């Protein structure tokens, strides 16, 4: 009986791949958003040459 329960609880390979791709997309979106925000700050507060 425990073997049956553990067998059902193990994530399928397809589920693990889908999860990894989903998380990768979120991470890429986060990096892109941060990059855009930093670029906007640089435009608002440009560095002046001395």
Structure notes:
This is Genomic scaffold, ProqFM164S03. InterPro entries: HeLo_dom, HeLo_sf. By secondary structure, this protein is mainly alpha-helical. Helix content is 80%, strand content 0%. The protein has one domain (4-44). The chain starts with a helix and ends in a 6-residue tail after the last helix.
How many runs of DSSP E, i.e. beta strands?
A: 0
Shape estimate: rod-shaped
Helix content: over 70%
One letter per element, helices H and strands E, the order comes to: HH
User: Roughly how many Å apart are the termini?
Assistant: 76 Å
Q: Strand-residue fraction?
A: under 5%
Rg, Cα atoms, Å: 22 Å
The total count of helices amounts to 2
Largest sheet: none
The tally of structural domains comes to 1
Given helix and strand content, the structural type is mainly alpha
What's the average pLDDT?
A: 80
Stretches where pLDDT is under 50 for at least 5 consecutive residues are: none
List the helices and strands and how they pair.
Blueprint: H1 2-9, H2 13-44
InterPro entries: HeLo_dom, HeLo_sf
Protein name: Genomic scaffold, ProqFM164S03
Domain Prion-inhibition and propagation HeLo: 14-48
Task: List the defining traits of the structure above.
50 residues; Genomic scaffold, ProqFM164S03; 2 helices; HeLo_sf; 80% helix; mainly alpha; HeLo_dom
Short account of what is shown:
Helices cover 80% and strands 0% of the residues.
């Amino acid at each position: 009986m425990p073997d049956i329960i553990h067998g059902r609880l193990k994530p399928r390979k397809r589920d693990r791949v889908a999860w990894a791709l989903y998380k990768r997309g979120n991470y890429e979106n986060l990096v892109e958003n941060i990059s855009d925000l930093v670029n906007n700050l640089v435009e608002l507060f440009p560095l002046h040459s001395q």
